[in-house]
Design goal:
Elements: H1 2-21, E1 57-59, H2 61-67, E2 71-76, E3 80-85, E4 98-103, E5 107-112, H3 117-120, E6 125-129, E7 132-136, E8 146-151, E9 154-159, E10 166-167, E11 171-172, H4 179-182, E12 189-192, H5 201-204, H6 211-214, E13 219-222, E14 225-227, E15 230-232, H7 238-245, E16 251-256, E17 272-275, E18 279-281, H8 289-309
Parallel strand pairs: 1-18, 4-16, 16-17
Antiparallel strand pairs: 2-3, 4-5, 6-7, 8-9, 8-13, 9-12, 10-11, 14-15
């Protein structure tokens, strides 16, 4: 009994000493062998965002110099200066030589086989005039200015004509448009579902003579929409194409280039597509028809005067 009282007295005295001395105490947690301390989860590594492409600006006149080696410029009433390619087959039509890949930023992107494809198959519209498919220059870039049909085991697309307007809020104004009438039969490109991802569309597409028969079993799928003020070529979605074809489509990132010079022959390396997509500024009024005709008259008068003075 005395021993217990002495022990109790010692413990109380020690507690009093600690309290009076102002010392602090520390709590020690002892884990059972079945327990483990829970650590805070490590933060997931963050991926640096892709750098914004440097904005390159050109004027419409840039088209003239860039496309001149590959075709002919003509004037079409109502459209102004237009261009058509020289080295193409008789049954050629826009968006027939190249292949489609999916880019999250714009939807279906047309990888053209032509040096001039950066302009004529990503800006502007096409119209058939005097025996040629003629390109009407435009200002807005997209993965491909086309309209889509699908059905009966086939997917079809065609270049948009100048009569179809796109704006950055509603996309293409397509209400009430009868596409099979608005666009010539020979402009359409049709491929069977299983050949939609082909790298050489011109080798697997239907002959233009078959185009009219495809409309009977196909339905209009849509045109270009607008997201964040930009054209989106998603009328046929990536998942839609996978369902039609039974396989996942080629998916790419965009690798922007500062000009159209020195582009590699293979613009699709399996991971990225090489893209030149400058911002196009409108030319000054001195390039309008009246001003051009005035200059032509002045040049003609100058030549006639020089001949008379000889």
């Amino acid at each position: 009994m005395r021993t217990c009282l002495k022990l109790l007295t010692g413990v109380l005295a020690l507690g009093a000493v600690v309290a009076l001395s102002g010392c602090y105490t520390r709590t020690i947690v002892v884990y059972d062998h079945h327990d483990t301390p829970q650590r805070d989860p490590e933060p997931e590594p963050t991926r640096d965002p892709d750098p914004e492409p440097e904005v390159v600006e050109i004027e419409v006149s840039y088209y003239h110099d860039s496309l001149h080696p590959f075709g002919t410029w003509i004037y079409i009433e109502g459209y102004g200066d237009c261009w058509y390619p020289n080295d193409v087959d008789d049954d050629w039509r826009p968006y027939s030589h190249g292949h489609w890949v999916w880019v999250d930023d714009c939807g279906w992107y047309w990888v053209s086989d032509y040096e001039w494809g950066w302009a004529c198959e990503h800006y502007g519209r096409w119209t058939y005039y005097s025996g040629h498919w003629c390109w009407v220059p435009g200002y807005e870039w997209s993965g491909g200015w086309v309209v889509w049909y699908e059905g009966g085991g086939y997917i079809g697309w065609a270049a948009l004509p100048p009569t179809i307007i796109w704006d950055d809020r509603d996309g293409c104004h397509d209400r009430g448009v009868r596409w099979e009438i608005e666009i010539r039969d020979s402009c359409w490109v049709w491929v069977s579902h299983g050949k939609f991802y082909s790298r050489h569309i011109h080798q697997v597409c239907e002959h233009p003579r078959q185009n009219r028969t495809r409309f009977g079993n196909a339905s209009y799928r849509g045109c270009l929409g607008a997201e964040r003020g930009r054209p989106m070529n998603r009328a046929i979605g990536y998942d839609d194409a996978e369902r039609y074809t039974g396989q996942k489509g080629p998916r790419r990132k965009v690798k922007d280039q500062k000009d159209d010079k020195g582009r590699p022959d293979n613009r699709d390396d399996g991971e990225s597509v090489i893209v030149f997509r400058p911002k196009v500024k409108k030319n000054k009024p001195d390039n309008d028809k009246e001003e051009r005709e005035k200059k032509e008259r002045e040049e003609k008068e100058k030549l006639e005067k020089e001949k008379a003075d000889r």
